[in-house]
Amino acid sequence: MPVGRRPPPAGPAAVGTAGGTAHAAVRTAPGRRRRTNGRFARADRLAPYVLVAPAVLIIAGLRLYPLALGVNFSFTGDGDRNGQNVGLDNYAALFDDPLFTASLRNVGLLVLLLPVAVAVPGLLATFIYLKVPGHRVYRSVYFFPAVLSPVIIGAVFNLLLAFDGPANSLLGAVGLGPIDWLGDPGTAMYAVVGVHIWATFGMGLVVFLAGFATLDASLIDAARVDGASLPKVVRHVVVPGLSRTVQFVVVTTMIGMLTSMFGLLYVMTGGGPEGSTYLPEYYIWFQQGQMSRPALASAASTVLFGVMLVVGMLQLAILRRSGRED
């Protein structure tokens, strides 16, 4: 192009081409945006499943699969019938065994004593939260029993609850006769459960204290201004406000009472006297470790799992209903 001359203006064809390209870009941008948004939406929907998948695989591989194997093994025989399918014979043998039926009766006793096991850490947590006199002592010593071995705890309480031990010495000092705490079938189970509650209430207390961190303190202050007594504050303010926490502690405490008392039973009573302190977990150990009857022990484990499932669901249903009524 010669110097000094301006380029010719773009013709209609060039303008039309540029305008068509712009209009095409405008037309295709929303479509591309919709496709991109659709991919992001699908990714958002899949993200929770991807995040949960490792935990589900671990639970399925390490929990559900062994549980299914144990249930299947409970339908096989022991001894001369080892590996043979025996149907429901093991379950029939369980319910014909007085030791197993006694262990189930003791499960009913644990259910009746469960409110005590939940109330102890709940009340102590309430005292600490409300800063009643002595709350600093509770805060400093409440977790100490939880770090002790059940073997140590059982040995210590064997000495304290012996027929000539300190507990009976104190009863004698106030004019009450001695009690055979661990040798009387009528008191042995209560003694072991009491020791278990003392040894494990620290975990429940920690959970309750965490629940109090979410409680609206203004409600308690308002109740105090209105002149409500401590029992009424607990009944009408604390318990409804901690309903979820109470549900969690109830279920975990019941599971602990059914599956974590073996150490105390082994050290303190050995299942006696007269089989009065047998629980399903102790019966399972006895059949597996002492009688070499693993299939029967698997059947007892399956029954224990069913009992725990039913009791837990009933407890949650009752607690939810009471929460709605409040």
UniProtKB/TrEMBL annotation:
It is a multi-pass membrane protein. It is found in: Cell membrane. Belongs to the binding-protein-dependent transport system permease family. It comes from Glycomyces paridis. SUPFAM superfamilies: MetI-like (SSF161098). This is Sugar ABC transporter permease. Its main location: membrane. Residues 12-29 have a biased composition (Low complexity). Residues 1-11 have a biased composition (Pro residues). CDD domains: TM_PBP2 (cd06261). Residues 1-37 are annotated as: Disordered. It comes from the Bacteria.
